[in-house]
Amino acid sequence: MSQQNPIFIPGPTNIPDRLRRAMNVPSQDHRAPDFSDTFLPVLAGVKEVIGTEDGEVLLFTSSGTGGWEAAISNTLSPGDKVLIARYGMFSHRWIDMCQRHGLDVQVIECPWGTGAPADQFEAILSADTEHEIKAVMVTHNETATGVMSDIGAVRKAIDSAAHPALLFVDGVSSIASVPFEMDAWGVDVAVAGSQKGFMLATGMAVLGVSQKALSHMDEAKLPRTYFDFRDMLKANANGGFPYTPPLNLIYGLRESLKMLSEEGLENVYARHYRLAEGVRQAVSAWGFKLCAQTPDLYSNTVSAIFVPEGFDSNELTDHAFNKYGISFGIGLGEMNGKAFRIGHLGSLTEVMVLAGLATIEMAMVDLDYPIQLGQGVAAAQEYYRNTAPTK
Amino acid sequence: MSQQNPIFIPGPTNIPDRLRRAMNVPSQDHRAPDFSDTFLPVLAGVKEVIGTEDGEVLLFTSSGTGGWEAAISNTLSPGDKVLIARYGMFSHRWIDMCQRHGLDVQVIECPWGTGAPADQFEAILSADTEHEIKAVMVTHNETATGVMSDIGAVRKAIDSAAHPALLFVDGVSSIASVPFEMDAWGVDVAVAGSQKGFMLATGMAVLGVSQKALSHMDEAKLPRTYFDFRDMLKANANGGFPYTPPLNLIYGLRESLKMLSEEGLENVYARHYRLAEGVRQAVSAWGFKLCAQTPDLYSNTVSAIFVPEGFDSNELTDHAFNKYGISFGIGLGEMNGKAFRIGHLGSLTEVMVLAGLATIEMAMVDLDYPIQLGQGVAAAQEYYRNTAPTK
Amino acid sequence: MSQQNPIFIPGPTNIPDRLRRAMNVPSQDHRAPDFSDTFLPVLAGVKEVIGTEDGEVLLFTSSGTGGWEAAISNTLSPGDKVLIARYGMFSHRWIDMCQRHGLDVQVIECPWGTGAPADQFEAILSADTEHEIKAVMVTHNETATGVMSDIGAVRKAIDSAAHPALLFVDGVSSIASVPFEMDAWGVDVAVAGSQKGFMLATGMAVLGVSQKALSHMDEAKLPRTYFDFRDMLKANANGGFPYTPPLNLIYGLRESLKMLSEEGLENVYARHYRLAEGVRQAVSAWGFKLCAQTPDLYSNTVSAIFVPEGFDSNELTDHAFNKYGISFGIGLGEMNGKAFRIGHLGSLTEVMVLAGLATIEMAMVDLDYPIQLGQGVAAAQEYYRNTAPTK
Amino acid sequence: MSQQNPIFIPGPTNIPDRLRRAMNVPSQDHRAPDFSDTFLPVLAGVKEVIGTEDGEVLLFTSSGTGGWEAAISNTLSPGDKVLIARYGMFSHRWIDMCQRHGLDVQVIECPWGTGAPADQFEAILSADTEHEIKAVMVTHNETATGVMSDIGAVRKAIDSAAHPALLFVDGVSSIASVPFEMDAWGVDVAVAGSQKGFMLATGMAVLGVSQKALSHMDEAKLPRTYFDFRDMLKANANGGFPYTPPLNLIYGLRESLKMLSEEGLENVYARHYRLAEGVRQAVSAWGFKLCAQTPDLYSNTVSAIFVPEGFDSNELTDHAFNKYGISFGIGLGEMNGKAFRIGHLGSLTEVMVLAGLATIEMAMVDLDYPIQLGQGVAAAQEYYRNTAPTK
């Protein structure tokens, strides 16, 4: 029966019924003349969600990780210098990827729980008078720590340094759940995935690419074929795909965009804020601390929550899974054993969140955590009932 | 997004994913030689669930109401006397149906909140020395009041009176969720529906019929064709159906039986008891009263809960639906405005129940009910965490 | 793999993917305030398909047989006289049902392969100066023989006799596939089913009822509860259902109406004619005869085809099923062993029909029928390629 | 309605209902302890299908093209020499990919319509006494020309030359449809995709990798992260995935393997041969020629068919799609305009193939091709009826 429970990991997210149906399609011929009628509006719809009019949207059959590989291999060459701050597992992974692709990564080490250090970016870029740094890479929402960084501030830092570096943003666990302004923020490559804010199955990386980034395609020397922007753009221009596309996800994305549009992006964002804030009220009622160090860094898509000293967060998530059949996010990297995570993004309601909070409370009391049953739930209830949108 | 929330009405129940898939079948030829390979094991599987070896199982394309019409029209004749106690909306409905079919209904009026009055049955049957009463009709689980009656006691009453009356039992909201012993209890017709304990879509009445009841088929004078047992039995004997069968529900029932068997009927019943008891702990923590007057009558599939004096239960259920997108059962009949109902049957987990309790609490506080947020939730949490089965 | 093959029975029909998806819905509360938003437009949509503005549409959870029982039990009383012509299995069944419900059935025996005898109706009704005949019952499309009767001619016969009898029409295998004009033809009760022209799963009877028929509700003495129009109309008036409705079929019907409307009813009818005519071209090329005796009787939803003398049609359909995994309709009643049937209604294309024709040809040659492989296929191909609609 | 028609492209293939259902799953936590229970048996099942006991199976979220990129980037370094014969669009694409990844490709130009030139391989490898050639890459089934090459012969060629080169085989449109013997043929990397013989949606590359190939992982200098075998193997060893896996495809593959096993791989292969041979009988009846030059090269998964001189194959496929709503494969590369293709792999029956043949015949006659309607169909019918397996 436990498959009936919602999941509380920061992705893949709970797939709404409507998208389950939308993805359930028969095979069709992607070379048939009508494929473009389905496909091209999808590209246009994604542009609105990521806030670009000038950029291009590209879809690759891969997880978000593949999307990042596409981003770097189409714009950079071996030996190119890039600037990345490490403040969580996912920023760490981009550093690792860049290094494995032969890039020269200048790493800024930041405490986990902090976000993108705009001031340090500015200082380093200002000092880089030769413009050796080709790109700055930022994880918008660091899923490991529940930290949302201020991308606008990063853009300001780059501009203040009058530096031509490209700005790459990992929006995998932020896009379509919180505001994302690709053009306004001057983002050159934004990477999202089908399985988070778009509420679909895993399998498609969604990229927004600026004209500036595209202008680097031909000079970029990192080898790539599968992820080559050029093949994709050429095929897209004719309404096609360079190889067999994932039809189910394209149909799913079409419906996902319709759902987002029907709810209204502003309402989608407000809902994510509200659900997140209810979780934070519960955390506060328990007397626990978030990994995110300050309120301006709180993520509206995932909360990473420190367990009290002497407790093992892995035991907690295992227990919740084994006894109550419900999945919470484990602590990743530095946070392993120290924090658990509640994903609160995608197709979610306050009703579902309360189920999650009530369950983790049971698991905590089972393991002698110093909390009272109903304590966090009541705080969240109070918040939710006072903030419910009028319909 | 509210479609993602579970529902808490006493049926139709939340359909598990596995059954959603199982019912999603292409059309097939019900006259093809292989139909019986699917169909006949389904009949056998239902026999186990309702506890009969001697009886026959018949499936009709209809809701449970149609199942009842099948029961009476195949065994009784206009003017026949039947004995029914009215203690809720559903027992009331059978009285109404019998009267509209020209039966002579002897009604025992009982307070809503009580169950089948075995002692009164015995007295009346003992006094009926001419055996004019042809059938006693009992609602096993009175969905309107959350009362589960003791069918074994009714059987004992009939036997004590040494009366040949048939025993008809409405098991629509009990069968496959709580123990049902057709043969042991001497039930002559048991009626269930696809959309409750079997966790399927609405559309199929499931009947268990004893050989004794079948022996009345030919003499029964109530007209019927669609619901005629004889046509159905004749077709079933050849592995077929007398008219186009609801293939999706038959495939669904096949999988439902598999799920019930995999979990184990005893475990299914224990789960229903546990989920119900958690709800009752919450009700008690709120200081509210159940409609069911004594603990031996408490239903494990639905709880009808009185709201405090001066409150309107319809306002509560409307508010919960409109503000939080979640459906609870309204008060039916006499209980309208006075009680709301929480359905806790079918494919349900404690995680889901806690979501329902947390939501109704918000709705109650919104409407100034004299309860504290988290109060009922905490009581249920405490119960659930202490009673979780080891896996 | 054979589940991938289309079926060629005259219902249930091949369910299009879009309707498979539409029927795959989670449980919802049919007493929730929003149910009527879904339900009421469905009733209105059906009115258009059956051609009534004045009548009411009622949906019952049952197969079409249940729909017929609803029709007679809500308008007639035991002993009432009705007039029915028997010219196939389905007209036979209505006679049987009426007799089992205590009606006095005046039967006109017609050769199977002919249709409703308007002239005989007129003669009998004209002679019935006392207006003892309360209803005339006609099977629009006799599925057993592939005969489509002229309902307008029957109406004219009744009018010529200036007789007040109600006109009941079984449109189960005609409605939504061929033109049906309830108001124009003065039909009092029209019965359809979800699993034919509406292309859905089996489980819902769809009735159109005239105000004249409704005016008989209160005086009708046949007992009924489940199928009582009054309960249904009362509940419908408030946007509800008198008992748990089959949500999946209501959602399915909503989408089915949308599909029919998008294609355009005229185009739907033209497609059925064209597909049927292609089959008839094949039959003619084989040198076989249809059961329907004259071209004006040819059904556009099913063709019943005589096998040559000395052949057994059951062997043919069994062979096709066992060797090629494809279902054709068997000969029913008088036609058993003498004819097989090709259903060509619902969600069907010429591509699918050709698959059926090619397969039955293989089966026939396997059994030494005097035909050539490709013979019928070529005739159908020629017809289809010359008549394809421009898109 | 045309979505009801089967498709006749060589992939994606018609997805059977059972797999549509299997892929329709809710999101689950891929880091939960039970994920490996699902995942690991899938890897084992694929091993059987590709015929390896010693090798490893790896699944990447990508199309087959991504699988090839994984193959080369994990085993080779820039400047490495590889040997590839170009005899169609797909062998051409691997050449292109290798070149774009900085490999030194020795290309053997072969006429399209021929297969892998084992003798030329042997000559070149024998001459390569320095063993500069690191890998030989062969397209097992050249989808563009309908040519199936003899991989065993290629292995023999390599062995005869006593050359240590790795053998890479593109089995995207062959694996799970025709025999594939990875160990017996000494294949070092075999690449398949979810959307062909496995009958699933597009989105997963399926790789078999020999221990010999794996031994090159650490020295391989082509950059890769997303497709890195090491990350994948490390995660797989713990039953996990290095990033969010495509759960729906993994569940789908589990069911696909079950279907293949239930039918029996030998029967699956026999079915593909039989379906293909029926198509070839039709081609022969039309008097047309296959692109594949000799019978030993005929592919059992796709037939590429030359249209007569003076006709344009693109017009034919467009016409079939626009007028009859059915997709055939267009001619690719050199074959564009000269040949069309009929895909006959995956979930297919002779009934479906006959639909395709009948349709393409109509389209051809519409365009004045010198054929008779029913001509090819009759030839295929004759073949199919004589070769149907006894059930």
From TrEMBL, chains A, B, C, D:
Alphabetic keyword roster: Aminotransferase, Pyridoxal phosphate, Transferase
The Swiss-Prot or TrEMBL record lists the needed cofactor(s) as: pyridoxal 5'-phosphate
Q: Which InterPro entries match?
A: Aminotrans_V_dom, Aminotrans_V_PyrdxlP_BS, AspGlyoxATase, PyrdxlP-dep_Trfase, PyrdxlP-dep_Trfase_major, PyrdxlP-dep_Trfase_small, SP_NH2Trfase/AEP_transaminase
Keyword Transferase in the entry? The reply is: yes
Pfam families associated with the record: Aminotran_5
Entry keyword annotation includes Transferase: yes
| MF GO annotations | alanine-glyoxylate transaminase activity; L-serine-pyruvate transaminase activity
Limits of the Aminotransferase class V domain: 29-326
Where is substrate annotated to bind?
Answer: 341
Instruction: Spell out which residues are annotated as carrying N6-(pyridoxal phosphate)lysine.
Output: 196
Q: Name one GO biological process term.
A: glycine biosynthetic process, by transamination of glyoxylate
Q: This protein's superkingdom?
A: Bacteria
Spell out the family assignment given in the record's similarity comment: Belongs to the class-V pyridoxal-phosphate-dependent aminotransferase family.
State the name under which the record lists this protein. Answer: Aminotransferase class V-fold PLP-dependent enzyme
